[in-house]
């Protein structure tokens, strides 16, 4: 069932160098398509009205028929990608995810929204480990992120001291599995084959 979210966009970060993988992770074939196709399809299935891909190679993603934007601060990592996505988003609330995290769940997004209240950022937390690249960010963060980037600060968690941030305590699960190496990719293929954490109908 498609659930329409009001005033909520999806930002997919696809600007990594994929150095440990040795090839562009966004276009690794997994299941019935590539990682980037899988996430765009999930975004549509989940009911987001707007999907934004952040990449400095815009032409590679035009076939997906979604908005593709470049960093304003090239070379500054995921924080710069979040900044670009939020700047271009038509929505106040945005869920951010990297292109190498294919098993993200609708249930997680629902849980983040449920605890948001007036927080500008909502971040999943497993024990003492944050998941800053599978989190909710509002457009109120744009100026604060720009301040960090202008001062050559690129760690995403540095933002959390500048804006009101909420944390969602959850247990370890495949939702946050990301593909960085060839071994990770083999594990992901196994998860898909076994249908572990990969149902599009969840939530």
Distance between the termini: 9 Å
CATH topology: Spore Coat Polysaccharide Biosynthesis Protein SpsA, Chain A
Major sheet characteristics = 8 strands, mixed
CATH homologous superfamily caption: Spore Coat Polysaccharide Biosynthesis Protein SpsA, Chain A
Q: What is the CATH level 1 assignment?
A: Alpha Beta
Gross morphology is globular
Q: Report the average pLDDT across residues.
A: 89
Strand content: 15-25%
User: How many helices in DSSP terms?
Assistant: 5
How would you sum up this structure, described in words?
With 203 residues, the chain is of the alpha/beta class. The model is unreliable at 198-203 (pLDDT under 50). The chain has a single domain, classed as Spore Coat Polysaccharide Biosynthesis Protein SpsA, Chain A (Alpha-Beta Complex), CATH 3.90.550.10. The protein starts with 7 loop residues before the first strand and ends in a 9-residue tail after the last helix. Strands 1, 4, 5, 6, 7, 8, 9 and 10 form an 8-stranded mixed beta sheet that branches. The protein has a two-stranded antiparallel ribbon with strand order 2-3. The longest helix has 13 residues, at 182-194. It is built from 5 helices and 10 strands.
Features:
203 residues; alpha/beta; Spore Coat Polysaccharide Biosynthesis Protein SpsA, Chain A; 8-stranded mixed β-sheet; two-stranded antiparallel ribbon; 27% helix; disordered C terminus
């Amino acid at each position: 069932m498609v659930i329409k979210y009001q005033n909520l966009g999806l930002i997919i970060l696809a600007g990594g160098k994929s150095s440990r993988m040795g090839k562009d992770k966004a276009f690794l074939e997994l299941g019935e398509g590539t990682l980037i196709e899988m996430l765009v399809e999930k975004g549509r299935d989940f009911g987001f009205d707007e999907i934004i891909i952040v990449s400095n190679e815009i032409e590679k993603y035009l076939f997906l028929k979604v908005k593709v934007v470049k960093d304003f601060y090239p070379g500054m990592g995921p924080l710069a990608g979040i900044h670009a996505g939020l700047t271009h988003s038509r929505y106040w609330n945005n869920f951010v995810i990297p292109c190498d995290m294919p098993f993200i769940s609708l249930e997680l997004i629902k849980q983040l929204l449920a605890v948001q209240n007036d927080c500008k950022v909502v971040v999943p937390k497993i024990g003492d480990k944050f998941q800053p690249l599978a989190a909710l960010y509002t457009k109120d963060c744009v100026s604060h992120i720009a301040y960090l980037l202008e001062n050559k600060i690129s760690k995403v968690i540095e933002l959390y001291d500048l804006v009101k941030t909420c944390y969602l305590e959850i247990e370890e699960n495949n939702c946050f599995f990301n593909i960085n190496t060839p071994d990770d990719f083999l594990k992901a293929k196994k998860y898909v084959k076994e249908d572990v954490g990969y149902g599009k109908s969840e939530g």
